[in-house]
Amino acid sequence: AAIFQYGNYDSLALPPSFLLQIDGSEWAIVQTSVGPVVGVGNF
Fold it and tell me: Origin, by domain of life (predicted)?
């Protein structure tokens, strides 16, 4: 499981993106957004 949080610490409202790598291979690009939290739960 992974959790990504954005706090707008610099007041630019530019949410971060992440390149996830597994065993050195590019796996996925996660692009976050500044919107309401939807679908939060424990899986």
Answer: Eukaryota
Quick check: 34 and 11 in contact, CB under 8 A?
no
The residue ranking higher by pLDDT, 43 or 22, is 22
The SS3 call for residue 3 is coil
In one letter, which amino acid is 8?
Answer: N
Question: With 50 as the cut, is the pLDDT of residue 43 above it?
Answer: no
Which carries the bigger pLDDT value, residue 12 or residue 3? 12
CA atoms of 14 and 23, how far apart (whole Å) = 29
Do the beta carbons of residue 3 and residue 18 sit within 8 Å? Answer: no
